[in-house]
Design brief:
With about 160 residues, this protein is mostly helical. It has helices at about 15-20, 50-105, 110-115, 140-150, 150-160, and strands at about 5, 10-15.
C-alpha cells in the first residue's frame, strides 16, 4: 500500500507497507545469568624505576666490562708471549751457531793446522816429567803466609 503525499509540489511515495513486510531479525537468546560478573579493574603498571633493577643492571654492566677488560689484557699478554718466544727461538739459534763455532775452533785438527801454518813442527819424541818430591819452600813471604793458613793471612793483612 503505497500512498503519495505532496510536499511543496513534489510527490513522495512512501512504502510503509513494504517495511512492515520485512521479517524481524532473529536475536540470539541470552543465557540466564548464573552469577554476577566481577568488576574489572585496570592492572597497575609496573614501576619503571626500581632501585634493585638499576643496581642489577649496573652490576651486570661492570661485570661485562671486567670480562672484556680481562680478555683484552690476556690478548695483550699473548702478543708479548709470542714476541718473547720468537726472540727465544732466534737466540737459541744464535747459541747453537756459537756452539758449533766453538767446537770447530777448538778441534784438535784445526789447532794443529794453525800451529803448522805458524811454523811449529811436531816433535820426534815426547817426554813427560813426573815430580815425586815436593817443591822446596820458596823464600817468598807471601808463600810462607799462605802456607800458615787463612787465619794468619787475615792477621798479616792488618799489619801491612
Amino acid at each position: 500500500m503505497a500512498s503519495t503525499a505532496t510536499r511543496g509540489g513534489a510527490a513522495v511515495a512512501t512504502r510503509r507497507a513494504s517495511a512492515a513486510r520485512v521479517a524481524p531479525r532473529a536475536v540470539p537468546a541470552r543465557a540466564p545469568r548464573s552469577a554476577p560478573k566481577p568488576k574489572l579493574a585496570p592492572v597497575p603498571q609496573p614501576a619503571l624505576r626500581r632501585p634493585g633493577f638499576a643496581a642489577f643492571v649496573l652490576i651486570v654492566a661492570v661485570a661485562l666490562l671486567a670480562v672484556v677488560g680481562s680478555y683484552a689484557y690476556i690478548a695483550q699478554q699473548q702478543f708479548q708471549v709470542d714476541k718473547l718466544q720468537k726472540a727465544r727461538i732466534t737466540e737459541q739459534r744464535k747459541y747453537e751457531q756459537l756452539r758449533l763455532q766453538v767446537a770447530q775452533l777448538t778441534a784438535p785438527e784445526r789447532i794443529v793446522g794453525a800451529a803448522q801454518q805458524l811454523g811449529m813442527v811436531t816433535p820426534a819424541q815426547v817426554t813427560y816429567i813426573q815430580i815425586t818430591e815436593p817443591l822446596p819452600a820458596a823464600s817468598d813471604p807471601t808463600a810462607e803466609i799462605l802456607s800458615n793458613g787463612w787465619q794468619n793471612v787475615k792477621a798479616d793483612l792488618g799489619k801491612r
